[in-house]
Amino acid sequence: MTAETRFLGENGFLSPVEPLTINHSPSTIGSPMVDFFSERIEVTCKGHPARPASFVWRGKEYHVREIRASWQEWKSPPGSPRGGSWRLRRHRNHYHALTDTGELFEIYLDRGRSGKKEWVLLKRL
Length: 125
Hints:
Layout: E1 6-8, E2 14-16, E3 35-46, E4 51-57, E5 60-73, E6 92-99, E7 104-111, E8 117-124
Antiparallel strand pairs: 1-2, 3-4, 3-8, 4-5, 5-6, 6-7, 7-8
């Protein structure tokens, strides 16, 4: 699709296509844009229970100053059978981590089906 692409608007006239903008939740309308990455990262944890203390992303180390929020996710991936086995569900621990650079990131530990644990930087908030 090019910038010249047009669509039929509500009034029946052709209008230029508007760029799509996405906020991470309806409650944040008017907030800055969210940058999505979904990239693997290396994380160092400390404390009990263990929480992210620092992580390396794209060759740069970020130190976590504060965990602003954390939660667990057990959803089934899109397209999986309804009421399917717990083994098909996602098992993730999510964190909103404020770093020493002042950036706020959402990272998660994927405790996947294979038993292999992977850390992912999902987005910059």
